[in-house]
């Protein structure tokens, strides 16, 4: 198949979270399976300098955006056999310090930036000599594409490709003042308040438009696919999602083990594997030194790498750690986000010197080193569409402690589910006390070497490779073209 993917983030060119990893890995897996994948993404600041192999394409966009007409240029990169990346170059929109925000404030023109980007995606889908069989868009930033394609069909685009929307996080919907709708140049009926379309309580909702108009919808884990059709997790869109339930499936994200591995990883101090675990001890000692913590192998080391956001359970994590840090344990954090949580963790570090260390900012190398050096990884999310860090932790032999929600529930096996096959520790209730109890269980597990080793081995052997699951997306693409065919899913 020819698949055109569109994403506002793409690893290694740009990344704020799991979206970037997922789209990059999926595109690679599709190409690897013999398909032709092309990805469209914005040309953000620094990409050309970091990737000098980018070539300018003889292609100019000149597209209507409300009453204006906006120009952009195009660059491309052949990333692998069967995989090409297109970069939309509009310096005014994309040559900035951040992707969506700066100094904790969203850019005021995000609607304009991503409506324009979505229009560029459609322009490529329509006019490239290479014809996509499906256009696969991701999250709100490109979720207007299905509606825009439908409109172009109504205006005479003979047979446009079907569209697939993946929801990576329903909590981010791209909601803007109603005036922003004019940027789409869509007829007013797409904004009609009949429950289906871009209108959302008098505002423009980009993700809602995608859910309404995409031929097929996926989200990033089976449990999250069920959760988002409920009022509790539906973020106001559960009614529409229930209406589209027949075209909605959850496909657990895979992991790119080419990036996230412990045997050939330039970020790690020493390689290790399930058969040669001595290297993990070296990584732990180095991490403790890096964070100025006592390099004691017998003290269990807990870690977190996360956006510091409410979704990630940062409030209960602060509470649980405050309760548990009188026990023998250490904790390290790498995160960025809310200043309020940054203050909370700084406070914790001040209270427990020699036990807690924190770094704020974004650091890819340190993320790998934390995954490799810790004994346990904390991920107590309030909700979690898929989550990648718990799967990286599994491969790195770092036992995940997760809340049983979304993809966390789908990817970790708890002791109580199956003691022989357990890969981690799960808890259900969203409270600091519940998480503290899970940490207490971890301390017991750590003290029982045989059980701990067994759990670690299970974790490291768990396989979430894309090769195993890419066919689920190919099935979804078939569904886009023939929405009535029943779909068989394997996870
Ligand atoms: P989300 O997409 O909701 O942020 P995921 O667990 O799906 O959560 O993916 C997060 C990705 O971002 C992982 O690859 C993780 O290592 C990375 N990440 C998050 N925060 C940081 C940070 N401060 N520095 C480096 N990598 C980070």
Secondary-structure map:
Blueprint: E1 2-6, H1 18-32, E2 36-42, H2 47-50, E3 55-65, E4 68-80, E5 83-89, H3 91-94, E6 101-102, E7 105-106, H4 110-127, E8 134-138, H5 145-154, E9 163-167, E10 175-176, E11 199-200, E12 203-205, H6 206-213, E13 216-219, H7 222-227, H8 238-243, E14 248-250, H9 278-290, E15 301-308, H10 314-324, E16 330-337, H11 339-351, E17 356-360, H12 364-373, E18 376-379, H13 389-395, E19 399-403, H14 406-411, E20 425-427, H15 432-447, H16 449-461, H17 466-481
Parallel strand pairs: 1-2, 1-8, 2-5, 8-9, 9-13, 13-14, 15-16, 15-18, 16-17, 18-19, 19-20
Antiparallel strand pairs: 3-4, 4-5, 6-7, 10-12, 11-12
Helix pairs in contact: 1-17, 5-6, 9-12, 10-11, 10-15
């Amino acid at each position: 198949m020819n698949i055109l993917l569109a994403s506002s983030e793409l690893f290694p060119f740009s990344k704020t979270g799991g979206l970037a990893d997922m789209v990059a890995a999926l595109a690679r897996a599709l190409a690897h399976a013999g398909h032709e994948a092309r990805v469209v993404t914005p040309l953000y600041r620094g990409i050309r300098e970091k990737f000098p192999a980018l070539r300018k394409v003889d292609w100019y966009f000149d597209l209507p955006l409300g009453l204006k007409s906006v120009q952009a240029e195009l660059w491309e990169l052949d990333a692998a056999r069967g995989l090409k990346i297109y970069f939309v170059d509009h310096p005014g929109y994309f040559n900035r310090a951040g992707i969506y925000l700066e100094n904790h404030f969203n850019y005021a023109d995000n609607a304009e930036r991503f409506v324009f980007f979505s229009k560029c995606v459609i322009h490529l889908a329509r006019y490239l000599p290479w014809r996509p069989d499906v256009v696969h868009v991701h999250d709100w930033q490109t979720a207007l594409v299905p509606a825009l394609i439908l409109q172009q069909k109504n205006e005479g685009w003979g047979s446009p490709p079907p569209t697939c929307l993946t929801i990576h996080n329903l909590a981010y919907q791209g909601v803007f003042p109603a005036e922003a709708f004019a940027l789409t140049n869509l007829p007013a009926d797409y904004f009609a308040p009949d429950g289906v379309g871009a209108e959302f309580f008098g505002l423009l909702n980009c993700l809602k438009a995608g859910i309404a108009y995409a031929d097929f919808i996926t989200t990033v884990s089976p449990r999250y696919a069920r959760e988002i059709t409920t009022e509790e997790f539906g973020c106001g869109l559960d009614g529409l999602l229930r209406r589209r339930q027949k075209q909605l499936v959850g496909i657990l994200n895979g992991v790119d083990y080419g990036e996230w591995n412990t045997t050939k990883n330039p970020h790690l101090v020493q390689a290790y594997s399930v058969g040669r675990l001595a290297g993990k001890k070296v990584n732990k000692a180095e991490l403790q030194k890096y964070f100025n913590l006592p390099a004691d192998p017998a003290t269990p080391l807990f870690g977190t790498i996360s956006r510091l956001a409410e979704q990630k359970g940062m409030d209960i994590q602060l509470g649980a750690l405050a309760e548990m840090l009188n026990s023998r344990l250490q904790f390290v954090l790498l995160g960025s986000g809310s200043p309020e949580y940054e203050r909370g963790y700084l406070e914790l570090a001040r209270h427990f010197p020699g036990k807690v260390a924190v770094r704020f900012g974004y650091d890819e190398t340190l993320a790998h080193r934390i995954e490799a050096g810790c004994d346990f990884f904390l991920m107590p999310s309030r909700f979690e569409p898929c989550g990648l860090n718990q799967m990286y932790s599994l491969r790195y032999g770092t036992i995940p402690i997760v809340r049983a929600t979304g993809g966390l529930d789908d990817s970790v096996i708890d002791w109580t589910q199956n003691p022989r096959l357990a890969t981690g520790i799960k808890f259900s209730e969203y409270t600091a006390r519940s998480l503290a109890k899970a940490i207490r269980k971890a301390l017991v597990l750590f003290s029982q070497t045989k059980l701990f080793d067994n759990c670690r081995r299970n974790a490291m052997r768990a396989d979430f490779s894309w090769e195993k699951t890419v066919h689920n997306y190919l099935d979804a693409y078939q569904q886009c073209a023939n929405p009535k065919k029943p779909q068989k899913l394997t996870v």
